[in-house]
Design goal:
Protein name: 3-methyladenine DNA glycosylase
Number of strands: 7
CATH class: Mainly Alpha
Largest sheet: 5 strands, antiparallel
Radius of gyration: 19 Å
Number of helices: 16
CATH superfamily: Hypothetical protein, domain 2
CATH topology: Endonuclease III, domain 1
Keywords: DNA damage, DNA repair
Strand order of the largest sheet: 1-5-4-3-2
Organism: Arsenicicoccus piscis
Number of domains: 1
InterPro entries: Alkylbase_DNA_Glycosylase/TA, DNA_glycosylase
Structural class: alpha+beta
Length: about 325
Amino acid sequence: MTVAASQPVAPVASRTLRPERPLDPALTLACLRRGGGDPTGTTTPDGSVWRALQTPDGPVTLRVRADRSLGEVTAEVYGPGGGWALEQLPSLLGELDDDSGFVAHHEQVARARRRVQGWRIIRTGLVMEALVPAIIEQKVTGQEAFGGYRRLVRRFGRAAPGVGARLGLHVAPTAAGWAAVPSWEFLQAGVDASRSATIVRAAKVADRLEECIRLPLPEAHRRLRAVPGIGVWTAAETRQRALGDPDAVSFRDYHLAGFVGVALTGERVDDEGLARLLEPYAGQRHRATRLLELTHGMPERHGPRLAPRGHLPVRRGRR
């Protein structure tokens, strides 16, 4: 049920950060947006970034806005997950992301870094929140993936707390909610049996996957990959958002290798070529590629792509 437009809704709590470095919340949180119609987030004309999150303490609507004149970033929260979200706010906004040791080995990367000084690598600490849409995006076009995710979240999620409901936002299902989605509902959303089975398998071990936030990154990667259907690309996309991994490269992406090759050398390369180009950035390879993406207008990233189709099975195997 949405909130009546005339009914004021007060936030549960708020928190203000005064970053020592420039921080652009919209740019930083853009990686969470799943297409233009993403039901879990939006940006309003006043510059506020809104996110509806499923936290360990329950759903929350998070509003983040920057006041550049004061050098402040303020967050307001609505819903039972508000306390958790405010406690995690520095991580959610990438304030704990340390790029002081990053060296740009290409002029293109150095130029990109100067242009997007307010961007950070976030660490949401919400593994399933990042993993499920990444699974849905395997081997399909962006339009198909975003449409399927939108339909499933609106049907099986819940209206976001407080003002989030007025904005039409929805919180994604819990792990138990994803596990309970009938197979035919996945199919009607354009998510084939292979991907829906991966989502259900992940949901059934969600507690173990959420523990990845406390593991060393290599061990977290191995745990994600232990779930059949979660491959290199899907694990990397999850680590980038949930774990704040600056080295997680989305190998096997439909666009990334060619895009980076053209940006750095003027010629397209494959994944092997991408790995060679990124060797100087070991430990910071995702940071280097994301800087190029933000400044060179790369298309939405997705795993190995198939053409749009009806509800037909896709090739199995890790993604």
